[in-house]
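Q: I'm writing a short explainer about DUF222 domain-containing protein for a general audience and would like to include a description of its predicted shape. Could you first generate the structure from this sequence?
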Amino acid sequence: MTENAAETISPETYDIEAWLNDAHLPEESARIYRRGDLLGSINALQDRIRELTTAVDSSTDLDDTKAFTRELSQARSEYEELLTQFGESGLTVFLQAVPSRKTRQIRRRVNEAEEAKVKAGATRQDAKVWGNEEFIYSMVAAAVVGVEGPDGVRHPAEWDADILRELEDRIGPGQFGELLEARKRADGKLQEPDPDFLLTVSGTSNGDTDG
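A: Of course. Here's the predicted structure. Afterward I'll give you a sentence or two in plain language.
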């Protein structure tokens, strides 16, 4: 390291407070859907479309071929309609890293609430089970900072543990798990974006260029 470089990063010469002025906590996102009930019909239609496609390709009778083709066209239309409904039911949730200080505050609040339940007559075991669930819901709620619906516009969001309980009851533990995993990613080691991503998806990475 040169003498000039050492001076550049020295606490006495580098204004870290100015650098932190535009600092932001890491964020991750998760996509959840309120119409997961459509997946059964969507998957069944996929199987039917495969069957009808095979029937059309293998049919040697003109009338049968026409009938299979009509049914296949109808199945495709139903499939596309269900896909649209499913996609429009989606919500992208943005979750931010939760600083350690805030995590301790949440843990302290939950512990105090546990003790209050025990004093009110709950068993220690029941209070502990409630406290573990409350801490998980509260940590995810603290991480949620925004949502984006089908309109493609991000909106600020402030959720609490009760909203997340209702969300899990209404759309299932698997989708709540998506939020939980996104929060864990936000809290984890920062993953720098791949600088070659655009080249990779366009098929021009690793020397795959013309000429």
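A: For your explainer, you could say: The mean pLDDT is 90.
Q: Perfect, that's easy to follow.
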